[in-house]
Amino acid sequence: MSEAGGGRGFGSSVPQRAPWSLVAAAAALCLVSATSVWTAGASPMSREEKQKLGNQVLEMFDHAYGNYMEHAYPADELMPLTCRGRVRGQEPSRGDVDDALGKFSLTLIDSLDTLVVLNKTKEFEDAVRKVLRDVNLDNDVVVSVFETNIRVLGGLLGGHSLAIMLKEKGEYMQWYNDELLQMAKQLGYKLLPAFNTTSGLPYPRINLKFGIRKPEARTGTETDTCTACAGTLILEFAALSRFTGATIFEEYARKALDFLWEKRQRSSNLVGVTINIHTGDWVRKDSGVGAGIDSYYEYLLKAYVLLGDDSFLERFNTHYDAIMRYISQPPLLLDVHIHKPMLNARTWMDALLAFFPGLQVLKGDIRPAIETHEMLYQVIKKHNFLPEAFTTDFRVHWAQHPLRPEFAESTYFLYKATGDPYYLEVGKTLIENLNKYARVPCGFAAMKDVRTGSHEDRMDSFFLAEMFKYLYLLFADKEDVIFDIEDYIFTTEAHLLPLWLSTTNQRLSKKNTTSEYTELDDSNFDWTCPNTQILFPNDPLYAQSIREPLKNVVDKSCPRGIIRVREESFRSGAKPPLRARDFMATNPEHLEILKKMGVSLIHLKDGRVQLVQHAIQAASSIDAEDGLRFMQEMIELSSQQQKEQQLPPRAVQIVSHPFFGRVVLTAGPAQFGLDLSKHKETRGFVASSKPYNGCSELTNPESVMGKIALIQRGQCMFAEKARNIQNAGAIGGIVIDDNEGSSSDTAPLFQMAGDGKDTDDITIPMLFLFSKEGSIILDAIREYEEVEVLLSDKAKDREPEMENEEQPSSENDSQNQSAEQIASSSQEVDLVDQESPEESSLNSHPESLSPADTDNAASISPSEQNSNPTENHETTSLDGECTDLDNQLQEQSETEEDSNPNVSWGKKVQPIDSILADWNEDIEAFEMMEKDEL
Ligand code: DMJ
């Protein structure tokens, strides 16, 4: 393989763009040209305020980066609660999420080009020297190919791109001689063995030292990968090829993309979430724009922008057409089945899809981008952050939030496209929330639960790679950035690749691609990057007019089950099918409908009622399909109800100096004692009980009197501990796990059960902390002696008067906590664990399903039979308000169908066998989705 001469044959002068490359640049440029179009609308933000916010972003970045460098480097990531580095193998495994960690100083590499964007050139120079001096890419660690590509290869290439730009300017980086690029090439070669499959799709993981095949590799047995994992390589691999002249990288990435394209579901033009890398069969046949698929679509469009290859645009447009037809239900984006795209596969959305409005801006399809972004913003206003997943009626589905940048990304692109100062206000809210809820003395901590405000001991590298870039650029004027951002494209990790690569080392131009398209179909340009002068010709309030009808979409929504309804019924004026949430077993009309749908009601001996469907007994195939949907909803509702019977997590917030409420620990609730959700929180200083296990009368009542007692788990019942500390005068208790190293990051939520007897005598609140979270309090006592905490159901706002007391040195004091200071305790364990509400799922109720292939069954308990299950949901609303959104969705759906002769309800009427086969697939898909980690 020939390689273009090392020392940046592309080094000191930036090549001129070829004519088509100007098209690519124009595609990127169309994002920014609208800023000058705006003359009216929401009040503009003054230059001073924008600068103030920009400076705030810089200060926040310093806080995150500075703490990483001081307390974590050379580890991959900072653990901001315990203020130390996360070193793989030294912390309890968190599963797949740890596959991003390769002992290669991930956060430093991911931050390189952010330093330049934020005008920290000197720090960039230092950081590059550190990478070259310290980073080893040859560790015996199994890493994710996808994460290593987007974060490390992308980070090195972004760093290289800006290093050569700076060198050319003549002031900084004069010593630089393509060293980052050489590292990138070394890493590229390390990833190549992953592509050794007949399909050309890469294995999901690789051992950096031993590759795939060697016995020491400890990987290579996987059969499946996610679509995004296989389809998010082209930008970095093509850039590597073009920078170095080694064409193999681009070739491999193209081959993987070609294979995915071939495997798209031909009638819907959608792709599934996971695919078998050997056979090419879809493993998960659900399809959306979020987790598992997201950046595959992003890279098709951006590959066109960067590489100018029309076939990528063709593919993107074909998929986009399918997304807008099936998945987009503005303002929602809902997953569907690839082979049955008119049926939703889920009733919830994940946070990763928040990047999609940004991609729609790049595409030039602004309206749905504005709509979805507005819906997401309202969810954020409700919970301060976007929960990892939320339902179609905007309830929290997965409560964590690892400081993801996707929403900030879309906000930036929408501002660039519309110039509407509204998006600056959105950015301001994001900054405020980060400082208010996620900032801790040693960095920024992910949210463990957006409902309680509790933290997780993690600060992912993408927070520095992406969040600060997008927030800074949102408020920056051209002169605030030392280079022209429009000369670059953002990778999915927001790394910057120069557009001039399009004309460099083009050995794999479009004529070599395997795409079946050779000619461009002009109609596909319908949605592509229109001139923004035409987009908002005479209407500077365009974006606002789109947002206006949606302004209460979240607050006024109702709990819903499956949204898509049978359009045909509405057109003919017939009643909509019976929804599971409306079903009442005492309503004769409902029983009649059940019968029509082939669903029978069986009263079990234990008093429960079981619903069984024999599709064959339904009055028609449409009734059979309604029955299937009804059963599916019933299973979801019953699973939801079981979840709701679990107690939610609680929060322990350290409010004394130097924490001032900024550290919030996830705590397990007790099934006895004061219910913190109903009563005011309890606040007090903490004191360790003697004996520490709290299993007998306390010998130090004077120390715990009026305080919150700390007790170790084990050796007696939780209720007994509670009684002993209560008798000693404690106003509350925190039980700390004695399993060394246990953490709420890795263990499901723990609920403390009573002792099987009457526990009404226990009136103080009791909470449970895993060992790691407990250690944070124990360390604080050692360091500061007087430690005050707040026990509550949800973290409370930091107190301004306490913040004001803070001395400049106090932050450093707490940062000085070292790993050695983290105490842990260990003794025997016993008693009752309960699964977290987040952990329980449809899967956990296999008994609800009949084993017979042709039958579908769900059980409901006697108490559920006559009640409307939705009454238990936390979201309430007025009838009129509910129907508004439903109608919107209905209308949208009808319009879609009416205007599209290819899509008709008739198409959805399937033979019974096929419906039953699909049903089984649905169940499998739901099971897998519930298990899936984002
Ligand atoms: C980032 O690592 C990338 O943006 C990726 O494509 C998916 N999302 C994470 C951050 O949320």
TrEMBL record:
Biased composition (Polar residues): 839-870
PA domain: residues covered: 689-775
EC number of this enzyme: 3.2.1.-
Region (Disordered) residue spans: 792-909
Swiss-Prot/TrEMBL keywords: Endoplasmic reticulum, Glycoprotein, Glycosidase, Hydrolase, Unfolded protein response
Protein name, UniProt field: alpha-1,2-Mannosidase
Biased composition (Low complexity): 814-828
Source domain of life: Eukaryota
Keyword Glycoprotein: yes
Biased composition (Basic and acidic residues): 792-801
Subcellular location: Endoplasmic reticulum
Signal sequence segment: none
Primary residence: endoplasmic reticulum
Source organism of the structure: Balaenoptera acutorostrata
Family in the record: Belongs to the glycosyl hydrolase 47 family.
